[in-house]
Every structure is written in C-alpha cells, then in structure tokens.
Amino acid sequence: MLLSRHQVLARRERDPERLERSAYLLLSRIDTQGPMSIGQLSEAFGLDTSTVNRQTAALLRCGLAERVADPDGGMARKLRITAEGGRRLAGDREANRSCLARVVADWSPEEVRELEDVLVRLNRSAEALEGRHWPRTEEGAPRAVCHPPVPQESAAPAPWESATPAP
C-alpha cells in the first residue's frame, strides 16, 4: 500500500493529466490483448458489466479508446486503444518506471532482480487463485525493469526504458 500511495502522490504532483487508475488498467489490458468487448473486460477483471461500461465510457469520451467492429467477425463491438490512448499509457508506464527506479536507487542489481522474480511469482499466484491470468508475451521475453538510473554521457535510452512493461 505504501508503494501504491507513493506512485499515486507522484502522479498527482507531477502531472494532473496522468490516467486514472481504472483507465490505466483497462488500457493496459486492451493494449496487451487487443480489442476487447465490455463483457470480455468485465470477465478479465471480475467486475460487474455496468462498472466496466461506465469506465469505458470515460475512455471513449476522452478519446483514449474507440469502438470497432469485432476483428474476429463477432456481433459485439469491441474497444480498441487509440493513438492518444497509447501515447498516454506509454507516458504513464514510463513515469511509473521512473518512480520505482527512485525507490530502488540504492539497491544492487541482484536485489532488483530478486524483487522482480518475487513479484512475478506473487502476481502469478494471485492470478491462479482468482482464475484470471494476465496475458503475457512469451516466456523468456525481456521484462520491464526498474533499475536505478546510471549517469550516461550519451542521450541513448537506458535498457529499462525500452522494455515492454508488465502490468
């Protein structure tokens, strides 16, 4: 809870345009899985359809998502992340990584890797109990990491800045 509070406070203080938590979660899932219907999102998060409907209506109003025909030919319309939604999601992910990098700034690389491994295990255990698994890239693919910034002479991005984020 402390880490979450730290990120929420950092979010508000730095940029009032940051995504709301529900918008971040929905956009992350759509970004990871592709276009999804309200029913699919409700099932994925274990939420009532009316709740997801309200949350997705806000995404639509803000231009962060759009309704599209089902790419698989189904009857239900689906929600797809827009370019603006993708841009805002990427910005929030980077801000979250930066915030976490500050938290672990004095940790050794081994300690950071150990935390990453334990958090992956924790997430997967929670998903198994709920029966709701988050879609991920193939096993062995690079994970998002939050290594402390290292002073660099070049303007090249640090390795963790280009990694695909895990939700």
SSE map:
Blueprint: H1 2-14, H2 21-33, H3 38-45, H4 49-61, E1 65-68, E2 78-81, H5 83-103, H6 109-130
Antiparallel strand pairs: 1-2
Helix pairs in contact: 1-5, 2-5, 3-4
Strand content: under 5%
Give me the count of strands: 2
Helix content: 40-55%
* Cross-sheet strand order for the largest sheet: 1-2
Mean pLDDT: 79
N-to-C CA distance = 17 Å
Overall geometry comes to: globular
Question: Helical element count?
Answer: 6
Please outline the major beta sheet: 2 strands, antiparallel
Low-pLDDT residue intervals, each spanning 5 or more residues = 145-167
Backbone structural class? mainly alpha
Question: Order of helices and strands, N to C?
Answer: HHHHEEHH
How many whole angstroms does the radius of gyration measure?
A: 17 Å
Summarize the structure.
The chain has 167 residues and is mainly alpha-helical.
Structure explained in plain terms:
The protein is built from six helices and two strands. It has 167 residues and is mostly helical. α1 (2-14) crosses α5, α2 crosses α5 (83-103) and α3 (38-45) crosses α4 (49-61). The two termini are 17 Å apart. Residues 145-167 have low confidence and may be disordered.
State the main characteristics.
single chain; 167 residues; mainly alpha
